[in-house]
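Components:
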Amino acid sequence: MQSKMKESDPILEVENLFASTDNLPILKGVSLTVYPGEIHAIMGRNGCGKSTLSKIIAGHPSYNITNGDIKFSGENINSLEPEERAQSGIFLGFQYPIEIPGVSNLEFLRVSTNARRKFLKKEELDTFDFEELVKEKLELVKMDHAFLTRSVNQGFSGGEKKRNEILQMALLEPKIAILDETDSGLDIDALRIVASGIKKISNAQTGIILITHYQRLLDEIEPNYVHVMADGQIIKTGRSELALELEKKGYEWTDNFIK
Amino acid sequence: MVNENLVQDVVKEPYKYGFVTDIETEKIAKGLNEDVIRLISLKKEEPKYLLDFRLRAFKKWQKMKEPDWAEIGYKQIDYQDIIYYSAPKQKEKISSLDEVDPKLLETFDKLGIPLTEQKKLTNVAVDAVFDSVSIATTFREELAEHGVIFCSISEAVKNHSDLIEKYLGSVVPASDNYFAALNSAVFSDGSFVYIPKGVTCPMDLSSYFRINSGDSGQFERTLIIAEESSSVSYLEGCTAPMFDTNTLHAAVVELIALDDASIKYSTVQNWYAGDEEGVGGIFNFVTKRGKCLGKRSKISWSQVETGSAITWKYPSCLLLGEESVGEFYSVALTNNLQQADTGTKMIHIGPKTKSTIVSKGISAGNSINSYRGLVKIGTKAKGSRNYSQCDSMLIGDQASANTFPYIKSQQPNSEIEHEASTCRISEDQLFYLQSRGIEFEEAISMMVSGFCRDVFNQLPMEFAAEADKLLALKLEGSVG
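Structure:
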């Protein structure tokens, strides 16, 4: 099955990426290629650069790429604005989704969905059509309609915030989704809901990068590849068994691989 | 700071209303003295009591000092360098709109306020004021059928002198403050509204103030009287051309609500604000006050202040009638080098009076935005309540926001609640919205209109949409 996937072109290619913030180097030569249908897990200690990598792919303005390239569908996106990346199909599920008081969740989701649809040259949805669509997607993450009338993430519990992220992913139908510790702070039931949501949204054309500390998410969504990051580099790559081994032996074991 | 390069790339939308109408005007010479006041009064063929009112005000003004307590700084105004009367030349007596100079109609057309019979707005009656005079008032006959009087204040002086004599200066006395005294001495025109007993005004009433000439001040005066059990919603809009000099605008607005009457007064203020370096723009010194004279009467101010180089304005309520209600909903947005010192006074005099204050200040660029408010509960205002909420939003790191709430209670059996907050649009909030495909500018305007929602909800429908667009426009390129 793997070999069949590789016949298509990669969705995302990160090539020898170096990046810094406030002149502090964070990424020190990361390379990663994701093909359609693949699920990659990135693991590693806090501060190893996992979240930074995800933010840089999404275009966060606080980080500077000092060397290397990020290619999306074969095109270099180093200089694209975050909104352009999102419109073209890059999705970042945040570890700590921020609260935006006063902005209604429903309106936010609609504007966001329409921005993506416009890029795809699909018809933009009015409030009525959008209601229909969002109702269907709410099912996927078992969210109540009442969430839509509140301000974006405001007063949401940790689990509700994460489900709201997956709801956004479902609406935006990205080509690649990077989910940054989407499992953290979730109880078992919420984790299952989120995992099944992710599985239902993704398909043979989607690439997924799961950033996680724990095996339990990977029990629900089996990755094709597991990468271990330390000190701004990917120090080891393996199949799903690597995550299990890591769980047994701990990150100290991987320290041996630091170049 | 936030996405600096992008912001600098954004093309700034020029002020849309900055054009000048080339029209022959009748102006009097610059300067202010008793003769000028007599001349204005003569031109308007005023009765003696009004001339005396003006002259008394002028005497008081001469003894007064320009206030300096507000958080604003500006070059000394030379009151002798201002033209106090400027009017487009027209036929002596205009009996219908067809006789109004087409250039004037075209001007209001361009401002989105068509006046002619064929094109006029269908759901709102408009009084159009150009420099010192009222040009036209629409829907007069229709309103008259309901007994509603809506006309320029000059006409009211001629046709409804009893009401003018009784109420003019009864809410804002000529000696109230420096700018009110100046206005009382030289006011040239403005709007007059009278809603008779038991009448709900069948449509919104609106005045549109246009300053056209660069060297004349605008001193309009508005008087609204709502008799027992009547109600009216009144809207006010204002624009001015772009001049590199400052133009003085000192208006007075007086509202009177009798038993069970209600007045809703909404303003969208978009005077020219000056350029990015702070050159030019309107100096806006305005006194607005409503008197809830009757039992259970209600006066509600809502304002969206986006223009003017300087805004100095405190729409207030005197709550005399038992169980009367005062409200103040405000959004004040400042950008570049604009300065705003605005707020309200809620003076509780009668028992069981209630007031609500919701103020949202947004400061961007290098601007200064201050809320200044007074809540006073007098000895007889037993069982009175006030709720105040003052929120500030900062955009960028050069803008400043102040809140000066003054609270005076002389009545232990009353409640005063005050909440205040300050927030800054954070880079992470912007990134979150952008990472969902929402453009940078739109992300900011979404957050700003979210911040202002409580106030926008109070505005009449079309006004709310306009206000939303106006804020977005004003903020273009402001984050940096």
